[in-house]
Design brief:
Smr_dom, Smr_dom_sf, elongated, endonuclease, endonuclease activity, nuclease, alpha+beta, 194 residues
Length: 194
């Protein structure tokens, strides 16, 4: 069949087709869009020392999947440090399990736990949030925990744990040194100088 015959056949088949008058598509998914205030709250970060649980929103979180590997690294964290965290090479010195907690209770417990860890100079912890395969929506706790940790400026980075420590249902979290510990370290170094 020649190109001309194909073209004629195409025109014949399309002869009764009318052009579309309205070609825009409306989004019918009904997904929640965060307000400007919620976005501003998400972008600002809060220090653990003066943390307020109300600061961490219970209204909206970017939802993730139950088996999704979660990773977050604040600017300035060295790639080698993040890689060691991801591979579970740091000693985990404290653990928080959020199973069977409400979002509000979990939010309060995370802040209390991280504050206490920072005061005690515990830098690497594990937070078990679960995968949330049976929650509605799925992975709700996991989604909120990841969002909250990014809002806390004293959290340097986090990564989903290795399988034997909870896998995608848990996070390794690395904290900054507290201001007091930074000052102690600095003074100790200065006092040992000749």
């Amino acid at each position: 069949m020649s190109d001309k015959n194909e073209f004629e056949l195409f025109r014949e088949m399309m002869s009764d087709v009318a052009p579309i008058k309205q070609d825009t598509v409306e989004d019918q998914t009904g997904s929640h869009q965060p307000t400007e205030a919620q976005l501003a709250r998400q972008q600002a970060a809060q220090k653990l020392a003066n943390s307020d649980p109300e600061y961490l929103s219970l209204e909206y979180a970017q939802m993730v999947k139950p088996d999704e590997v979660m990773a977050y690294k604040r600017d300035g964290v060295q790639d080698g440090v993040f890689r060691k965290l991801r591979l579970g090479k740091y000693d985990v010195n404290a653990r928080l399990d959020l199973h069977k907690m409400s979002l509000e209770k979990a939010r309060d417990e995370i802040l209390r736990f991280l504050k206490q860890c920072q005061r005690m100079d515990v830098r690497t912890v594990i937070i078990v949030h679960g995968k949330g395969e049976r929650s509605n929506p799925q992975a709700m706790m996991k989604s909120y925990v990841c969002q909250w940790l990014q809002q806390i400026s004293d959290v340097l980075c986090y990564h989903s744990a290795l399988r034997h420590q909870g896998g995608t249902g848990a996070l390794y979290v690395m904290l900054k040194k507290s201001q007091e510990k930074k000052l102690e370290t600095r003074e100790r170094h200065l006092s040992h100088r000749p």
